[in-house]
């Protein structure tokens, strides 16, 4: 029991340390990303988030979320969102397919003036690289969330030889180490305890908090959702949906 408690504490300490590091080292970029989100809302643009595999968890955490911006939509690539596809390894294989991101974007509601958040821990696979690259050719602003360390420790899997970070208007560095495992043990042959989901979600929620505050400071009421499990929450959300329905795509 003592060893288990120690391991839990070590992991939580590691995750807290990473969150504190992004708080301190990414503060200016978080502020800039929050402003970009707020600018998009004010200018009539739409908000989208994309991530493949486990990176999709942080993207989904932004969508239809109590306390979150109602305008954030999930850009889904069939078979690559989460691990619900069988076999689960198919999702990883799809991330390496050239041309898939272009087909998805060209079939999506994204248009010039919108904002797309692309989340990829490694930033090396064809899907996120092409997603960011093609989105910008469409006039879409791109915020990338990745571990910049991968660009020096791994090779790109995109035909251009580039990484996600090379095709973004802003890059948020999650500071996650290559391999995404925070703990080791003498009797365990592989590192374990990934922290990327915790850190990336915290980083993106910091951006959303910044955007909401920025909007309020401009005299614009942020289009925030309330919990449907508190009195009045559903009525509030219905009002937001009616006002911003033309920019919300998860209702149709």
Automatic annotation (TrEMBL):
Family that this chain belongs to: Belongs to the UPF0309 family.
Domain SIS: 37-221
Protein name, UniProt field: UPF0309 protein ACFQGO_07910
Annotated CDD domains: SIS_RpiR
Domain of life: Bacteria
NCBIfam families, per the entry: PRK02947.1
Coiled coil: none
PROSITE patterns: SIS
UniProt cross-references to InterPro entries, sorted A to Z: RpiR-like_SIS, SIS_dom, SIS_dom_sf, SIS_GmhA/DiaA_subfam, UPF0309
